[in-house]
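Dear colleague,

Thank you for sharing your sequence with our group. We've completed the structure prediction you requested, and as agreed, I am returning the results in plain text so they can be pasted directly into your records. Please verify that the sequence below matches your submission; if there's any discrepancy, let me know and we will rerun it promptly.
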Amino acid sequence: MSSKVFNMVTVSAIKFADATSDGSVPSSLSNVNILAEGKFTPAFEPGAVTQEFDEFTHLPYRGYRANGSYKFTVDLPKISIQDYASFTGHSYDQVTDKITMGGQDTLPKPKYFEVYGDNVSGDHMVFKAFCGDVVAKWSGSVGAAQATVSVSIEVSMRLDNSSPAKMAEYGSAV
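Please find the predicted structure tokens below.
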């Protein structure tokens, strides 16, 4: 029986890589060690239940669950140009260290994520998303007196290609 508390209250690091074709954990992960405080937001919303009612008794006899939505967002105040290109599908040139936006943009490859943090009891926890489609945006006011404009990424999770298929895993970081 587990004595760990579920709720994650701090996030210390995020690691990611392109998702693998077989659903395994990638061998090499990139690190994002600077995160905006309070800006990791999981949103796991199972679909609503619709019930069918008996015509004579007016009591429910069957229920159906609609499709759910499983995603998370995170704001990254500091990220490399190469990682940003990886999240957006923009063209990246390693020689000039520049992104070209438009023209050659492609759909970004699905990503694998690991989010490390502590729960309310201080236990080290890890959340793993095995395959997710990423939408990244960079927006906000830029100026000396403004807060750092961060890149915000939204990851819509989906089942991976393992057997049996899985979407996410959460538990003790070992």
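Summary note from our side: The chain has one domain: 8-172.

Kind regards,
the structure core
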